[in-house]
Recover the amino acids of this structure.
């Protein structure tokens, strides 16, 4: 059974930093690209970042480019999102998602999602 | 940047009806479109990919189709469990994916 479990969310002041983690199990982790997708309260889905299975390629939405960094540790089956320079508008539930394509090197579509971790940016 | 526009924002329906949800891309994305269903408090569920291929375990009453840059999700014989928000998502762009704003399917 595929499981994705996020952690690391919390309350942070504008300009602060947080590091999110997503522990994965139940599938060949290094064979799949992973993504972070966020959802502000009462709003729609916004793709934030993606990373290839090897970790060699990373992708970012324009809204977070230069502030967020995605990475993965395939020995720990974990993907991370380092968030720096946080803004009030970054407040959202952040979920990790598994790309359905095996061996894909870039973002596609997502067949499993975690329940998410809430990030609140407020003074 | 590709913009995905979903309409309508809200759809009020009765169980048993057939509903049609629309998603339009601002430029050609071939058939690189997925549909998701999200119920309150739950993670999104992949319904359709490749514009028309149902994901594993998705009932046949969910059908995806497209013409040019216009994509449609049709739900036949709507059941109460189908009440949810539906999102489209393009993955034609090599370096990013974009979601539509969503359509909320609610009981009339």
């Amino acid at each position: 059974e595929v499981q994705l479990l996020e952690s690391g969310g919390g309350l942070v002041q504008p300009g602060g930093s947080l590091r999110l983690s997503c522990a994965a199990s139940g599938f060949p982790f290094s064979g799949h690209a992973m993504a972070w997708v966020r959802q502000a309260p009462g709003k729609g889905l916004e793709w934030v970042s993606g990373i290839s299975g090897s970790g060699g390629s990373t992708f970012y939405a324009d809204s977070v480019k230069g502030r967020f960094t995605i990475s993965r540790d395939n020995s720990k089956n974990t993907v991370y999102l380092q968030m720096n320079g946080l803004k009030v508008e970054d407040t959202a539930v952040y979920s990790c998602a598994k790309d359905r394509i095996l061996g894909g090197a870039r973002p596609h579509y997502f067949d499993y999602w975690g329940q998410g971790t809430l990030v609140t940016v407020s003074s | 940047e590709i913009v995905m526009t979903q309409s309508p924002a809200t759809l009020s329906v009765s169980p048993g009806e057939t509903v049609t949800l629309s998603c339009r891309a601002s430029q050609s994305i071939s058939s690189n479109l997925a549909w998701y269903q999200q119920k309150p408090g739950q993670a999104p569920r992949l319904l359709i990919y490749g514009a028309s291929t149902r994901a594993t375990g998705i009932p046949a009453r969910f059908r995806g189709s497209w013409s040019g840059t216009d994509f449609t999700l049709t739900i036949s014989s709507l059941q109460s469990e189908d009440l949810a928000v539906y999102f489209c998502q393009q993955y034609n762009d090599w370096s990013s994916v974009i979601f539509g704003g969503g359509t909320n399917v609610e009981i009339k």
